Amino acid sequence: MLDIAQVANSEEKISSLEAKFSEFALQSYQMESPPFFPNWSDVLVYFLHPDSVGTSKSVQDVKGTLISDFDDIIRKVTSSFILSCEKSSDRVAFETILEVYGGILLGDFLQNVQSTGNRAAFKSLTIIYDTTIMLRLLGCSGRELLSATMEMHRDLQSLGCKTEYLSNNETELATILDTIIGRYDSHQLIYGETGDALEKGTIQIGTIRSLQIGYPEALAEVNVFESKYNFQNTKTANYFQIDEVRFQEMLAGDKDTFYGQQNRISDAQSLAVTMRLRQKSNSFDLSNAKYVFVTANSHLARSARRFIREELHKSPQYVPPMLTHSQISTAAWISNETKLQDSAISRELLANCMYAQQLSKDWVDGFIGMLKGSDVNDANHTLIHAVRSIARDDSLGNPTILRKLNPNEIIRRARLAEEERVAEQERIHKNRLEEIAVESDTTARAEERERLAERNEQKAEGMARVVVRLLEVLFIILCIYIFVLGFGSFDADDFTTWLQPFGFVLVTAVAVLDLFQFQPVRRISDPLRKRLQKFFYRNLYEN
Fold this sequence. Notes:
The chain crosses the membrane at residues 466-490, 502-521. The chain is mainly alpha-helical.
């Protein structure tokens, strides 16, 4: 568990990871030196907190290609390094990153929201979720992102916040779900967080099909409902309408994932609605901000903050109308008076790393163009996934480097990788069949031994029964013989002379009844029968 005071000034600890990061970059991406930064420590800090490290955006040579836009390269390499540290048996590096990231989360929150306000006032705060947040809550982005997002959602609910979504985001959500199903049914690659989740098997296509018509109910189950807001019933808020076109122009510089014109229009509308709902609210406390739009897009949140300061002349202390997933999570932790726990910070960091792994639209367009004219198509899912994986690593997720790659060489390597994968699967399948055969043979042998032992026990029991019956017959004959020989010595006046023959008659009767398997008297001979059975089994069959 991390104490806030312990993580506030921990960024210098990142320097201890310089050698490890350098080794990873060289082995995984053949990068001998960090691009655009003097060392790998600065690269890592820049990824965790882009505003904290300055860099010149001069053109540099990366893998033989002149590059000026380095963000996608930094995201790809650094997020891969952090994910590898998380999976490594050596947890020291990952725990160091967590400690630094905990301090950065707190610092970033305090930089954007100076005060959380009164905890009781959060009941009047409405949180509006972006489309990506809704997809994560529905599980469409995989288990890891679902876990991190659900934790944020529960923390907000524990504060009493209401959670809603806007109609424009609902339209985006429905369109995305339909597109995913359409591409899947037509054997086309699916990109983004959902594509990665499907490839890893952390979500099934059947779940997404059910969400096509069932997403409102699924969101309602976790208390996320459609906002009742619309422009018609809030005409009095027209005074607070922002210049949506101007904000769209500000968003045009975003090259994250699939961020096109329609996305900018929708996000500008979301900012406009949030500001109309806030109206005259100028609170410096988060709990009194009335409405906050939560997004996974850090560029959108930064642009919204800059827009309201430049265009609306809001104070730097004014609570931004849009906050990131990380910022609102930190606010919830602080407001709930909980310490920054390792598990929570880890989920938040891994969620950001997986988001950073997403490919840009320019890269995807370039990849589709690269495959034109080749015999690789979307129908061969496994091969095209292998081609995409190699191309993504070789290009570092950068579309400019991608265009310089040799598609034939990538396809050749992908085929080899696919052949190795198939061979490995066949080997595993063969080994499993052999294991099953051995297990079946072992089971069959054990069952045969059990059947043989059972038959031998039955034989021993039969022999014991025969011996007991022979003994009973001999005993009956002996009793009759003694009784006949002594019959003439009976004295009618002496009762004691009748006791001995009467005893012989009684014992003989019991022996006869047992001989004919009369159950009430069989218990008398059972101990002898069982002893004989064990004797015969041990001496005749056990070895």
